[in-house]
Write a structure and sequence with these properties.
Radius of gyration: 18 Å
Number of strands: 10
Strand order of the largest sheet: 1-2-4-3-5-8-9-10
Order of helices and strands: HEEEHEHHEHEEEHEHEH
Helix content: 25-40%
Distance between the termini: 38 Å
Oligomer: single chain
Number of helices: 8
Largest sheet: 8 strands, mixed
């Protein structure tokens, strides 16, 4: 495997990259050929291993064809000011590595297991870790949140054959890929590269006892149809799970980029904060009458 540093496309992106490079980081995964994957941590001021804080792990987008780890830096900076620890992990993509879709999905699952296993060392409340992602990064978050029930022997727990998997406190998707059969997911090449495509297709993993879902999408997105996301959230709720979808009338595929559309960014971020507070996962936020960022 080989890696490279992608050049920033805009001044704002370069600024986020610089901020990310200054953030504390740890190597969360190593490979025998020397490749290391880092996780950047943006935490509230004064955060310590004893803080026991709520947290969110962000999986960047780019449809596995672009490397955009700095995508959620502005989100993380704001949330850290609200007392939320944000973890931004690197994961392998087609853009940087010779890997398959299954390898990429595995990185997402491993990142979720890593952060939960190391919660105490990172100062996190193990039961209040949420996952979030955009486009194909959302696919990683959904896969970790929607792992199927695990069958147990009958004598292990009388009257029950299944136990629930370890799930995040919630999952959030922004212009997220929710169906690998859809034309929008063709570039991910999952059908050709995955040994069991249905096992990683969120539409095939819908069931009861899933964590709360927050979904945001731009109604002006020319690449991903917001109607599909509406349907997915309705299915989520029809199975007695909590879900909320927020549609931004002016949002397009740059929905997560503060520098492109600040109004859509603030609408989505504040709606997410409100949802998380209502679910009892994050503390109540102070709604400001001015711009949230910079």
């Amino acid at each position: 495997m080989t890696s490279f540093q992608r050049k920033a496309r805009t001044a704002a992106e370069a600024r986020c990259r610089r901020l990310l490079d200054k953030a504390p980081c740890v190597v969360w995964k190593r490979f025998t050929d020397g490749v290391e994957l880092k996780a950047y941590i943006i935490a509230p001021p004064g955060h310590t291993p004893d803080s026991f804080a709520p947290s969110v792990m962000f999986f960047f987008g780019g449809m596995w064809a672009l490397e955009f780890n700095e995508e959620f830096v502005s989100w993380a900076m704001h949330l850290a000011s609200r007392g939320i620890v944000c973890i931004l992990p690197e994961y392998r993509t087609h853009a940087r590595f010779d890997v398959t879709a299954d390898d990429i999905i595995t990185d997402g699952l491993d990142a979720w297991q890593w952060v939960r296993h190391n919660a105490a060392h990172l100062g996190l409340d193990q039961e209040q870790i949420s996952l979030a992602g955009s486009d194909a990064g959302a696919l990683l978050a959904l896969n970790a949140a929607m792992q199927p029930m695990v069958e147990k022997r009958k004598w292990w727990k009388p009257g029950s054959r299944d136990i629930p998997p370890i799930m995040p406190a919630s999952v959030a998707i922004f212009r997220g890929v929710i169906d690998i059969e859809a034309p929008e997911a063709k570039t991910l090449n999952i059908k050709a590269e995955s040994q069991a495509p249905n096992s990683i297709n969120p539409c095939a993993l819908l069931r009861r006892y899933l964590p709360p879902l927050f979904c945001a999408h731009g109604m002006a997105d020319p690449l991903l149809d917001y109607g599909m996301r509406e349907w997915f959230c309705e299915q989520w709720k029809s199975l007695d799970n909590e879900a909320e979808i927020v549609l931004s009338p002016t949002g397009d595929h740059t929905l997560t980029h503060f520098d492109v559309n600040p109004a859509a960014f603030e609408q989505i971020l504040l709606a997410w904060e409100t949802f998380m507070a209502e679910q009892g996962i994050w503390p109540e936020s102070v709604i400001e009458d001015r711009a949230l960022m910079w």
